[in-house]
């Protein structure tokens, strides 16, 4: 173990002291957050039949997600090339903010079990959106999964992303039906993009047309809402990662998000589907 730590520290020295210091500060904060999570889970074991609050469920899911993301970040830092140092430093800073926010939410002054409190009901939702926006601003992340609901409402998620107009040129939303084929999804996406290729029936040619249309749109986000099974986005014609094109899928299943190779997977807050409109 000492030898491994020596190698890690040697790698960090090559990358620069700022990244090393910030990474280890993040690691210490995450260890504290993990301890809080363990304490909360221990207390939840002795519920006495009480129902735990949704805010507690959401917080635990968010902590699990950030722990998984930290493991990915750790590997990226260890394999880092010098030219990526600045990018990784920014990622560490971004994750430090998320961990700090989760630590601030960890006290639960009104308890872990149900006593309805409107102020607590919507607080995690604002946190959820801030986290999503930070992930979307990461140029290395182009495929994001949101699980736990049958798709957040178009009004809520699309409108909030559209309000980020200084960062995204276009936000498009397509509902994926249970029977959706590649051909139908191509037609639905073309409709969202106000693109007419109704005279073209070849799926490969339609995919090329869609791909070129996305590339011309600049920084854009496509939301595929309510995905029930793995979809081949390449065959559809979605050029993820090219010219700032990003994909968000929503699904009831976390496994579907994994099958879709999502780089970040987020548990949706229940408030997202219960209250429509914009949040700050």
Task: Write structural notes for this entry.
- The protein has 280 residues and is of the alpha/beta class.
- The chain has two domains: 1-116, no CATH class; 142-280, Rossmann fold, CATH 3.40.50.
- The protein is built from eleven helices and five strands; from the N terminus they run αααααβαβααβαβαβα.
- The chain has a five-stranded parallel sheet, sandwiched between helices.
- The longest helix has 28 residues, at 17-44.
- The termini are far apart.
Structural descriptors:
2 domains, disordered C terminus, alpha/beta
CATH superfamily of the largest domain: P-loop containing nucleotide triphosphate hydrolases
User: What proportion of the residues is helical, as a percent range?
Assistant: 55-70%
Distance between the termini: 45 Å
CATH topology name of the largest domain: Rossmann fold
CATH top level class name of the largest domain: Alpha Beta
Structural class: alpha/beta
Mean pLDDT over the full residue set: 78
Radius of gyration: 21 Å
How many strand units? 5
Strand order, biggest sheet?
Answer: 2-3-4-1-5
The outline comes out as globular
How many helical stretches?
A: 11
Helix and strand run? HHHHHEHEHHEHEHEH
Main β-sheet, in a few words? 5 strands, parallel
Domain NB-ARC: 134-272
GO molecular function: ADP binding
InterPro entries: NB-ARC, P-loop_NTPase, Plant_NBS-LRR
Keywords: Plant defense
């Amino acid at each position: 173990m000492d030898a491994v730590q020596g190698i890690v520290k040697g790698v960090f020295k090559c990358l620069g002291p700022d990244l090393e210091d910030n990474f280890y500060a993040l690691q210490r904060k995450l260890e504290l957050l993990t301890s809080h999570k363990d304490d909360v889970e221990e207390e939840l074991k002795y519920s006495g039949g009480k129902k735990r609050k949704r805010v507690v469920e959401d917080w635990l899911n968010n902590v699990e997600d950030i722990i998984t993301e930290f493991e990915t970040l750790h590997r990226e830092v260890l394999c880092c090339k010098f030219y990526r140092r600045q990018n990784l430093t920014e990622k560490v800073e971004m994750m430090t903010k998320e961990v700090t926010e989760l630590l601030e939410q960890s006290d639960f002054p009104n308890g872990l079990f149900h006593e309805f409190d409107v102020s607590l009901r919507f607080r995690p939702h604002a946190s959820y959106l801030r986290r999503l926006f930070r992930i979307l601003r990461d140029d290395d992340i182009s495929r994001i999964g949101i699980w736990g609901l049958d798709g957040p409402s178009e009004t809520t998620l699309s409108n909030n992303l559209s309000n980020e107009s200084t960062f995204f040129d276009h936000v498009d939303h397509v509902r994926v039906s249970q029977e959706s084929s590649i051909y139908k999804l191509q037609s639905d996406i073309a409709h969202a993009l106000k693109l007419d290729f109704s005279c073209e029936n070849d799926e490969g040619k339609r995919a090329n047309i869609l791909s070129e249309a996305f590339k011309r749109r600049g920084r854009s986000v496509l939301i595929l809402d309510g995905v029930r099974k793995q979809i081949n986005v390449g065959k559809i014609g979605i050029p993820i990662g090219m010219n700032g094109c990003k994909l968000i899928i929503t699904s009831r299943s976390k496994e579907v998000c994994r099958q879709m190779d999502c780089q970040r997977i987020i548990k949706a807050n229940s408030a997202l589907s219960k209250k429509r409109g914009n949040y700050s």
